[in-house]
Amino acid sequence: MKHIVMWKLRDKSDAPHIKVRLEALADKIPGLLSIEVGIDFLGSEQSADLVLVAELESRAALEAYQNHPEHQAVIPLVKAVAISRTVIDFTV
């Protein structure tokens, strides 16, 4: 299954730090098969500033990922710099 999250940030200069913190979750959370974080380069009004694309084994793995202490530790950091968040979860 795929878990995709897009954020609009108050200050786009925060994006590289958030990217590093999110990518650090790789290999730390069981069931998380891959994680990719991208920073927008276009900067249009419709663009999100940051995107996370994660592939997980199952819906149960998504729930475990969301509740995992390593993931929970990143949430306050992201919330502090984000204006908006959009998410989609789907099976492939």
Question: Could you explain how this protein is built, in words?
Answer:
The mean pLDDT is 97. This protein has one domain (2-90): 2-Layer Sandwich (Alpha-Beta Plaits), CATH 3.30.70.100. It has a 4-stranded antiparallel sheet with strand order 2-3-1-4. The protein is built from 3 helices and 4 strands. By secondary structure, it is of the alpha+beta class. The chain has helices spanning 15-23, 59-67, 69-81; strands at residues 2-9, 32-39, 50-56, 82-90. It starts with a strand and ends with a strand.
Quick recap:
By secondary structure, this protein is an alpha+beta fold. It contains 3 helices and 4 strands; from the N terminus they run βαββααβ. The chain has a single domain (2-90), classed as Alpha-Beta Plaits (2-Layer Sandwich).
Indicate the CATH class: Alpha Beta
| CATH topology name | Alpha-Beta Plaits
Overall number of structural domains: 1
Which structural class is indicated by helix and strand composition? alpha+beta
Major sheet summary line? 4 strands, antiparallel
Give the overall form.
globular
Kindly report how far apart the N and C termini lie: 6 Å
In total, the number of strands is 4
> Uncertain segments of ≥5 residues (pLDDT<50)?
none
Radius of gyration: 13 Å
Order of helices and strands: EHEEHHE
- Residue share in helices? 25-40%
- Output the number of helix runs: 3
Q: How are the strands ordered across the major sheet? A: 2-3-1-4
- Average pLDDT, all residues: 97
Beta fraction of the residues?
25-35%
CATH architecture: 2-Layer Sandwich
